[in-house]
Specification:
This protein is an alpha/beta fold. The protein is 29% helix and 24% strand. Helix 3 (36-45) packs across helix 4 (47-58), helix 6 crosses helix 7 (150-161) and helix 14 crosses helix 16. The protein is globular and about 70 Å long. The protein starts with a strand and ends in a 28-residue tail after the last helix.
Length: 651
């Protein structure tokens, strides 16, 4: 039974952009949309009408949309969106040029800065002129090795204004991790901070840069941005120039915008890369723009003057999603550093200080502050926060309880899910609808998301593969250095030809229209031939107070698969027989006997990617004696050693 946690007021529903959009769909196209489900059905049945209306609703600036919305709509991959249109991504994000806040930046408690829209225009103009003088033009790559700070946004916008392609990584990436990414795409310019703050300490980047730059022979310029210090010594860094010197010859003027086809490349993103070299995923300017503005404006109800925050680094696709908020004429609230700095309250301090309207974070962080015992509902007002988003991993039902009980009672909790592969979401929030415990509210408009069994049969109320059965604008242009598209097709279209298979194990609730995610389908457990989502086990284990974090895999054992659970416990706690029995009992009582692990093993740390996702597949490889091909993709690769040669797993 679905438990109702929140219901929007009639006033909030009527004031939403989504309600207005639904009325327009009926007026203009006779869509017959009486509620969200009928609106969604129209959006996937008539993508030509739907995406045409989205173009107008979000106010895309450019030459278009033209007379054709989509060519070859039935081909996936292969559909071409708005083939007659020409636009520039940066022009759409820089539509405001006034004294209002464009960016407010906190670098932990060390740095605070504020840029107006006019300031941002001026900075982008100077960077654009400098990049143009450096020879950067359409199709060239500009790479950022940067914290989540204003210059990162400005360099991306300046590159995009010229039709160049932006790609970024966060400064906590190691040398090989950067080379594995940027080394594949041959950037002309690298912009990098000299350092960054984390947990109150300054961390130097120049030593890593000294190894990175020679490894990317395509580089012609390295622009060093000051952050932790004003005058870093860059004399030993090849091709390097201080930001101030790079911009010194140029004064602000009107930004030029090169309008290019809808499918012109904008971003290169990277797969997590723990099973090999990261795949370089190329996204189009038009696809990212129309999809992300649809999500900001319609699904998150972001309005002009709103103040939008997402805790992210420049190495996670949520950074690219966040910056699109400028296109909704909202203020970006940027935070860089440890989100649990100063006892875990700094993000809530930021929310109150800056009137945050959308608060975005990860499910892991929500779980972490719940374990810390924080109760922001008692310590902070959070009166301006209308929407709280969570992504990165599955938000357990208890996480929903924590938000409504300990953070804010009257808030739309939008658990969202999609990924780097589509630089947007398949399932996300719905300001017209209730929030039910443990469920993502809805399938995204224009996204024909279904659940398939192994034979490609569509399911409701049963677990299966998340698929998308119709093309959508933010599908990748392709992979870099994959001229025949073989790697691209193998990644998403091998299991069900002509249908996008995303790799999530989910269930669609036919009564509410919501979706429950049980984890990655390639990490599902298969004891006795029965598929089990890992999130079902995490949900139970991590409610035990002594358990800080857990990771579960299937170990090949005696011609079958057995469930192995690794637990990271609170300081000073050891895995006693009593605690192990309590873990097993909770799993058995709340799931099924098949979910109960054959082995429970204590570890000091659990490996995760730079964006905080635990890496079940990498641990499974280590346990089975297989090499992990790209440890540089991990934030803490040394943690993998904790899973090697465990005697507990040999009996």
């Amino acid at each position: 039974m679905s438990v109702l946690l929140w219901q929007p007021s009639n006033e909030r529903v009527e004031a939403s952009a989504l309600a207005r959009f639904m009325r327009q769909a009926d007026t203009r196209f006779h869509a017959g949309a009486s509620d969200y489900q009928t609106l969604w059905r129209w959006s996937v049945d008539r993508p030509d009408q739907f995406w045409s209306l989205v173009w107008d609703e979000v106010g895309i600036v450019g030459d278009g949309p033209g007379g054709v919305v989509v060519d070859d709509a039935g081909r996936m991959p292969g559909a071409r969106w708005f083939p007659e249109a020409r636009l520039n991504f940066a022009e759409n994000l820089l539509r405001r040029d006034d004294a209002g806040d464009a960016i407010v930046f906190w670098g932990e408690d060390k740095v605070k800065r504020r840029l107006s829209f006019a300031d941002l225009h001026a900075l982008v103009s100077r960077i654009q002129q400098a990049l143009k003088a450096a020879g950067v033009g359409p199709g060239d790559r500009v790479a950022g090795y940067m914290p989540n700070m204003p210059e990162s946004v400005a360099f991306m916008l300046a590159a995009a204004s010229l039709g160049a392609i932006w790609s970024s990584a966060s400064p906590d990436f190691g040398v090989q991790g950067v080379l594995d990414r940027f080394g594949q795409i041959a950037p002309r310019v690298l912009v990098a901070a000299e350092g960054y703050f984390y947990s109150g300490k300054a961390h130097d980047c120049l030593e890593k840069l000294a190894s990175i730059v020679p490894g990317i022979p395509s580089l012609e310029s390295v622009v060093v941005v000051p952050y932790t210090r004003e005058a870093a010594d860059i004399s030993g860094l090849p091709k390097a120039v201080h930001l101030g010197d790079f911009l010194a010859p140029y004064t602000p003027r009107a930004v030029e915008f090169v309008r290019l086809p809808f499918d012109h490349p904008l971003y290169i993103m990277y797969s997590s890369g723990t099973t090999g070299a990261p795949k370089c995923i190329v996204h189009s300017a038009g696809g990212a723009l129309i999809q992300q503005l649809k999500e900001h404006r319609l699904h998150c109800d972001v309005r002009k003057g709103d103040r939008v925050f997402y805790f992210t680094t420049c190495g996670w696709m949520m950074w690219n999603w966040l910056v699109a908020g400028l296109g909704a004429e909202a203020t970006l609230l940027l935070y860089d550093g440890n989100p649990s700095h100063l006892g875990g309250n700094i993000l809530f301090d930021f929310a109150d200080a800056e009137g945050m309207t959308l608060f975005g974070t990860s499910a892991k962080w929500i779980d972490a502050i719940a374990k810390m015992g924080l109760e922001p509902i008692r310590t902070h007002s959070l009166t301006t926060v209308r929407t709280l988003c969570s992504t990165g991993s599955v938000l357990a039902p208890e996480g929903f309880d924590y938000i409504y009980g300990k953070v804010k009672a009257d808030v739309q909790l939008a658990s969202i899910s999609g990924g780097t592969d589509i630089i947007s979401c398949f399932m996300l929030g719905n300001p017209l609808a209730p929030v039910y415990r443990g469920e993502i509210q809805c399938r995204g408009l224009g996204m024909k998301v279904e659940v398939f069994d192994e034979n490609g049969r569509s399911l409701e109320g049963e677990k299966g593969e998340l698929v998308c059965t119709r093309a959508f604008p933010s599908m990748p242009v392709g992979f870099w250095n994959d001229d025949d598209g073989a790697k691209y097709r193998a990644a998403y279209f091998e299991k069900f030809p002509g249908i996008w298979t995303h790799g999530d194990w989910v269930e669609l609730n036919p009564r509410t229209g919501g979706i429950i995610v049980f984890g990655r389908s390639d990490a599902t457990l298969n004891p006795g031939g029965v598929r089990i989502g890992t999130a079902e086990i995490y949900r139970q284990v991590e409610q035990i107070d002594d358990v800080l974090e857990s990771l579960v895999i299937g170990q090949d054992w005696q011609a079958d698969v057995r469930v192995v659970l690794f637990v990271r416990l609170r300081d000073g706690v050891t895995l006693t027989p009593e605690l192990e029995a309590r873990i097993r009992k909770r799993i058995r009582d709340n799931t099924t006997p098949r979910h109960v692990p054959a082995k429970v093993v204590q570890v000091a740390d659990i490996p995760r990617t730079k964006s905080g996702k635990i890496v079940e597949l990498a641990v499974r490889d280590v346990v089975h004696g297989r090499a992990v091909k790209n440890k540089e993709a991990l934030a803490n690769p040394e943690a993998l050693d904790l899973f090697t040669g465990r005697s507990e797993l040999e009996e």
